[in-house]
Design goal:
The chain is mostly helical. It has helices spanning about 15-35, 45-50, 60-85, 90-115, 120-130, 130-150; strands at about 5-10, 155-160. Helix 1 (about 15-35) packs across helix 3.
């Protein structure tokens, strides 16, 4: 008698890279909109992100560099998450990714940015603010989790 069961296919690193990049674009847009709400320039947040790679953060080019840097970093974080969460169930992926976004924010905000090491500017921490960074990283985690939960597939496997 043949019995069929479902088995998780698992997430692959490319899923995480793509999901992280998509979530990174959304996170950047949300943070930019927060800037407008706070009566700042739409490009303030991306220009601040450019300070992560040693740019002064005061030109239009810095804004573009900031977006690229942020999306690239968040794509890599998405890859790491997909590798770590590759066998989670779909519902668990969403919650785990939301928590992951907050963990990445907390580590960055409380440890990495204040250190002000080479290329890592405390200016981003001071000017963007905790609420903007935390809430936009929650958006990142939500989008990453939604994307990866849709990528988590099941296969029908036969057992004899």
């Amino acid at each position: 008698m043949t019995m069929y069961v479902t088995k998780l296919r698992g997430l692959n690193p490319v899923d995480g890279l793509a999901g992280g990049a998509i979530a990174g674009v959304v996170q950047t847009l949300v943070a930019m909109i927060y800037g407008l709400i706070n009566r700042r320039s739409l490009w303030d947040f991306p220009r601040l992100l450019a300070t992560l790679v040693g740019r002064p953060g005061d030109t239009a080019l810095d804004g573009v560099i900031g977006v690229v840097v942020n999306v690239a970093l968040l794509a890599l974080f998405g890859l790491l998450f997909a590798v770590a969460a590759r066998t989670l169930e779909q519902k668990a992926i969403v919650w785990a990714a939301l928590a992951y976004g907050l963990i990445v924010w907390a580590i960055g905000y409380f440890l990495v940015l204040p250190a002000g090491g080479v290329g890592w500017s405390p200016r981003l921490r001071d000017e963007a603010g905790a609420l903007t960074l935390a809430s936009s990283m929650m958006v990142y985690g939500s989008v990453l989790g939604a994307y990866l939960s849709r990528r988590q597939k099941r296969e029908l496997v036969s057992r004899h």
